[in-house]
Design a protein that fits this description.
This protein has 217 residues and is of the alpha/beta class. It is built from 8 helices and 8 strands, in the order E-H-E-H-E-H-E-H-E-E-H-E-H-E-H-H. Bound molecules: D-xylitol-5-phosphate and zinc ion. The site of D-xylitol-5-phosphate has 21 residues, from strand 2, strand 8 and helix 7. The site of zinc ion (ZN) has 6 residues, from strand 2.
């Protein structure tokens, strides 16, 4: 079954405990945490202290998407705060160091690539990470339109994984709704990240539908 990871960027930040209860009730598999530093992307969100607080509200798997420069400096903070997986961008200066540190800390790892980055940039990571996060918008803001040109990268990455990492999760993030989500799972995505479409509508109904999308690995 396709996993669904709602991005709390579109949640009501004044009532995150209620938002987590809503996500759990709706059948969300993971909670996607978008960490932005105002340098790697032109927006700032939240960091480890907030994650430490919201960790008390839910047992959902924390899928942290680090859109930050120099991620290795912060891996311990995010691990200590309760993240279950840390995904770093291949466009940053030290993705391997961050991944190695996360592994030492016993948490799962992911590598992400921007819409303008070719899939070949993540090939070397595929055997050694749990997840590849294919960005389908330019990172920085929720509510943007899906960039369809990113879809072929999903099957290219799936091909890299055949033979070396059959259980690799491929997630897609940005502009995911009932139409674009289906396109991505048909192409081989196993995790759908979505903010505005899920929080702005009947989350339970949508998650129920989306979980049935796509091939079962
Ligand atoms: C964008 C973030 C996304 C974003 C998705 O930089 O990585 O996770 O919150 O939001 P929607 O689903 O609204 O495009
Ligand atoms: Zn994200």
């Amino acid at each position: 079954m396709t996993k669904i990871s709602p991005s709390i960027l579109s949640a009501d930040f004044s009532a995150l405990d209620r938002e987590f209860a809503r996500m759990e009730d709706a059948g969300a598999d993971w909670a996607h945490l978008d960490i932005m530093d105002g340098a790697f992307v032109r927006n700032i969100t939240f960091g480890a202290p907030v994650i430490r607080s919201i960790r008390k509200c839910t047992d959902l798997f924390f899928d942290a998407h680090l859109m930050i420069r120099d991620p290795v400096r912060y891996v311990d903070d995010f691990a200590d705060a309760g993240c279950d997986m840390i995904t770093v961008h291949c466009e940053t200066e030290n993705p391997w160091e961050a991944i190695d540190r996360a592994k030492e800390r016993g948490i799962k790892t992911g590598i992400s690539l921007n819409p303008g980055t070719p899939s070949s940039m993540v090939e070397e990571f595929v055997p050694r990470v749990d997840l590849v996060l294919v960005m389908t918008v330019n990172p920085g803001f929720g509510g943007q339109s899906f960039i369809g040109e990113c879809v072929p990268k999903i099957s290219e990455i799936r091909k890299f994984a055949s033979g070396c990492n059959a259980g690799l999760e491929i997630s897609v993030d940005g502009g995911i709704n009932s139409v674009t989500g289906k396109i991505c799972t048909d192409a081989g995505a196993t995790v759908l990240v979505a903010g505005s479409s899920l929080f702005g509508s009947d989350m339970k109904k949508l998650i129920g539908e989306w979980k049935r999308f796509g091939p079962t690995l």
